[in-house]
Amino acid sequence: LWLQATEDERVRVVVFRVPDNAERMLLAFLEAQRHEGDWQAPDLFIKFDAAFETGFSYSRALCDALIESYVASQESFEQQDVAFDWPFAALPRPDSAAGFVALVKSFAEHHAAHFRYAAAALMPATTTSAGAFDAWLKAALEAGIPKTVRLVLVDSPSRPRWDDLLKDRRETARRIDAPVDMFDIARETAAQSPSSGPAVAYRQLLADVLALVEKS
User: Fold this and answer.
1) pLDDT for res 52
2) What is the C-alpha separation between 161 and 163, in angstroms, rounded?
3) Do 42 and 201 touch, CB atoms closer than 8 A?
4) How far apart are CA 10 and CA 28, in angstroms?
5) Block means of pLDDT (10 residues each) for the chain, length 216 residues?
6) Residue 78: its pLDDT value, please?
């Protein structure tokens, strides 16, 4: 679904629309991209969960998080024979949405040989003002998302937070509908257990009960 949504090079924003109970599955997808395997996309996903309080503090927190993540990945870079030489310390870091976009652009372009896009997943743990966050995001988009960067947003069918953005930017924004149900997954996992007995039967029944409660 991600590859289909991003095959159009005009796309700059991707909205993952997942059920309320499946956000952990999305987090698992983002985490899995950090490890090599058949499931890996050709892009580098970076999750940003800093709380949004003001546009200035959020911009600074995002820039700090990007640099801290880069520094923490030094050993991984060296193991993959990737030069750890992005000159982040010499770069300007204004506390603005445009400043964050510029920093991500610098990082993505510096390491462009190793991934297609740097996908910045904006998932603030808390948001003091939805309107202020919308204004910050608008400023980021108006700054111009470069061709090496994609912004990732998240909402749910019960709270379609980004419908207006998708409508206003239909050429450059895409929605991924991922109807993942954690209770269905739990039930299927229990059913496929190689063992048997009361414990397996209990897990199956518990998954069924939770699914019924959720959907009732």
Assistant:
1) 98
2) 6
3) no
4) 27
5) 95 94 85 78 95 98 97 89 94 96 98 95 96 98 97 95 96 91 59 62 58 56
6) 84
Give the containing element (helix H, strand E) for 122: strand 118-122
Q: Whose structure tokens read 């993959």?
A: 80
Report CA-CA distances (Å) from 142 to 26, 188, 200. Answer: 27, 44, 53
Work out whether the CA dihedral 162, 145, 52, 68 comes out positive or negative: positive
The Cα angle at residue 149 between residues 18 and 10, in degrees rounded to 5:
80
Q: Report pLDDT for 141.
A: 97
What is the predicted pLDDT for the residue at 176? Answer: 96
What does the block give as tokens for 81?
């024979």
Phi, psi torsion values for 64, nearest 5 degrees: -60, -40
What distance in Å separates the CA atoms of residue 98 and residue 45, rounded to the nearest whole number? 20
Q: Enter the tokens of residue 83.
A: 């030069």
